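User: Before I run my own analysis I want an independent prediction to cross-check against. Here's the chain; please return only the structure tokens and, at the end, one sentence I can use as a sanity check.
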Amino acid sequence: MPAYNPTREDLARTVGSLLAQTEAADIVIVDDGSRVAVSQILAPHADITVLRLNRNQGITAALNHGLDYIVGNGYEFVARMDCGDICMPTRIAKQEAYMDAHPGIDLLGAFADIVDEHGTHLFFEGTSGGREAIGRKLQDNAAFKHPTFFLRTSSVQRLGGYSTAYPHAEDYEFMLRVYKDGDIDCLDDVLVIYEKNSASISSKNRSAQLWSRLRIQLTHLEPTSLTAYVGMARTIVTLLVPASIWARLSQAYWDRTSERQIATKAR
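Assistant: Structure tokens:
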């Protein structure tokens, strides 16, 4: 979990949800040069390791620093988390069990309950239907939220870590790379509560993120895929539409998607 100038409340909420897991896990927090060190805010705990960078280097560098530590210490799996979000108590157990049962999967996601800054539910986000459905969605955007990532460290060693070439869209590029060179899946379970915050890194760097997304789509373009061109067109439209309007359109999209997935499961 990378952290940069986290509030005491956000840190406590997220770490509390991690310590409450039904399957115990070591917690690695990368303090990305916060003004007040995370170790000064957080009470010491045997299951928590804080790695502090001497200056703010950005989320991609912090993520890769954490991955280097985790891979170097011989862990089999690594789960992503963002400060301020909440893990459901069974998150680690369910994702680990699925990975154990499906040894070919490199990256596993899950559904997220998207809430506003007051904790009010907005919509669910994720992609059902396995590799094929995820591949279609990846032509357009990320198929599930970054804090739901559950990775094999052996896959990180084979496929590499996060690319620094695509600022604020490192998760999307990583997913596409895994899809092309490995295997990927998403659990239907809602395992993370994700706070959609106007002060988040993605919100504050929306334009840069969208330009990175467009470059990623061009880099990984499948020339014969109509869906790929539709995905790029959607990214261009998103750049032109004000963020407040696009947020409402995005919510409507995920609401409709969730309804279809629920109806499919019911059948």
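Sanity check: The longest strand covers residues 184-195.
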